[in-house]
Amino acid sequence: MHLHKYERIWLLFGTGSLVVFLLIIGFGAFYKGAQPPSEKITIDPQNVEAQESFKKENLGLTKVEDGKYIVNVVASAFNYDLGKDEDGSNVKKLRIPKGSTVLFQVTSKDVVHGFELAGTNVNMMVEPGYISSYETELNETGEYTLVCNEYCGTGHHLMFAEVEVYE
Amino acid sequence: MSDQEEQRTWSLSKQEKRLSMSFMYVTFISLLIGGLMGLLQTLVRSGTFSLPWGIGYYQILTVHGVILGLVLTTYFIIGFQYTLMNKTVGMSHKQRQTAWLGFWVMVVGTIMASITILLGKASVLYTFYAPLKAHPAFYIGLALVIIGSWIACFVNFRQLQVWKKQHKGEKSPLLAFMVVINMLLWFIATLGVAAAVLVQFIPWSLGYAETINILISRTLFWYFGHPLVYFWLLPAYMAWYAIIPKIIGGKIFSDSLARLSFVLFLMFSIPVGFHHQLTEPGIDPVWKFVQVTLTFMVIVPSLMTAFSMFATFETTGRKKGFGGLFGWFKHLPWKDVRFLAPMIGMLAFIPGGTGGIINASNQLNQVVHNTIWVTGHFHLTVATTVILTFFGLSYWLIPALTGRKLTSKINKLGIIQTVIWTVGMTIMSGSMHIEGLLGAPRRSSYSTYGGTEQASDWIGYQIAQAVGGTILFVGILLMVYIFIQLVFFAPKGEEDFPIAEEEPDAEPTPRFLENWKLWIGLTIGLILIAYAIPFMDIIQNSPPGSPPFDWPIGNS
Description:
The complex is a heterodimer. Chain A is α+β, with helices and mostly antiparallel strands. Chain A has one helix and ten strands; from the N terminus they run αββββββββββ. In chain A, strand 2 and strand 3 form a beta hairpin. In chain A, 41% of the residues are buried. Helix content of chain B is 72%, strand content 0%. Chain B is globular and about 65 Å long. Mean pLDDT of chain B is 92; it is low at 1-8. Chains A and B meet through helix 1, strand 7 and strand 9 of A and helix 7, helix 9, helix 10, helix 11 and helix 14 of B. Chain A: Subunits I and II form the functional core of the enzyme complex. Electrons originating in cytochrome c are transferred via heme a and Cu(A) to the binuclear center formed by heme a3 and Cu(B). Chain A: Its main location: other.
């Protein structure tokens, strides 16, 4: 098939840029480990407490060691269950020191939800039957809004919490 | 007589015109209803307006998505494609009857789904993610729309087949070839969503199945969800490749190149659905990456199209004697709305396509996934590139179908409409992109999120979206007015049906481009590579299924 000379150059340049771009993404994904959240761990959505991480007492923020934290969350319409504080009321805000490595583990016990810590790369789909997890370093102080970014019903926009990263 | 001369003499019969016009009526009614819903959404999200009479935000969001995303586009495309087929290869009496059957099946489905949504029984948005459970009539309605559209597919396939039999050894008319590619793409893609709806959703919503496998339903949905956007885009490409050159007084840049790019779209637009599922669990990251790579392949035919378009513009301008580096550009027929509207559509595809590359990238997706950036992206691609091209087509297509003339007054109104649309969309889509980068979610009603600082930063952009949305609604009212003028009031006469021709000395198109078995085979092969193993993996590793949930959407 005949291709014009300039068109050949254009396509070569375009396809070449694509290859370079894909190599960068592939390098990031397979060498640097920057993979999307893809834990293939299943769970019974009607009995999430059967899994150690999602027992009532293990929800919310847990310190594993210095500078290392785990946050376990059960999402449901229209709430993120972050456990209870000492007074027995629901936690709506987490406080985490700057520079911590935090592993977020989330599951849903009803419908599909989103889990996005606005302004960071923590952004996952939460689906009944699966555990979504993502580990990140929180290096900037500030107050971050945790929002449900996948439609989960008529109270969807009322589903949120807060994470404060302090000095 | 060569096939090109034949194209020019083939005129549309009264019955054929009526068939295509019925699709156009549904299109423009949808535009008005869907557009009004869009306006209301932007107003609600600005925080200054609440919906009366207990109407829910997510109810109108569902209407907006279903009516504009699925109904308007499908009807316009099928109606437009019938005229292209009838003009280039003709339509028999039997084919026309079958086409009408398809139309009515679609209409019944559309009405069923619409009533269910209006009664508040299906506020599940156009993605209807399980396990949110809508009323069964919603799923059955959607299934009928798809089945009706399949009838259109088979009519189009048959039209080309009959023509080929009568013209042994000739190459098929370019536009007929393109229509058949687009319908093949649609048919193969909708098999996925039809399987989900027929096998999973309908029995489950009727209570015959207790649970549903969420990940399978989502995978089948997105197997369809990405080709869907190419089903919208390809008719615009048909216009750019084969109609716009005629309007500017030029020739088709290259028949073979146009066919090759359509074949590449067929092959690379289907096996790519996982890039919509990058941030979800249950799918192996290696397969996500494989599909990201395949996704990037659709950029190649887009680059080819961009080159062809500008090559046509330049060649035509220079032939008319406009020299200098950009002299030809200045002398394009900017005052002809049939050119201006699609041209702005093309220009919008430059940032639109770039945003698409960002969305489909493995890690960048995590920054923008489900933020309002995505909404901004498809308002730039579908609601600008595709819709402005469809508007541009309407200015000659509707008069050609109704036997009227496009007057210079309507042409002027059309130019104003195009400018309004461009301004409105720039404001709305621009502020959506920025707000999304700041982390604001899509698909959410107005919320201050407990008054956090981040959420208060978002409100300003939402007010800007309401301003853009209002301007766009003015554009919709004007477009509907123009449609009514073109249908009922414009002076009677014959309007051109512009189909461009090849250069007289063009190189012959290679025959392998029309080897349907080869292209369909390769497409199926690629789908198997991209989906077979991960799909088995999803089934083998599946969690207990999900029971239906109707209360979160107010359907209990």
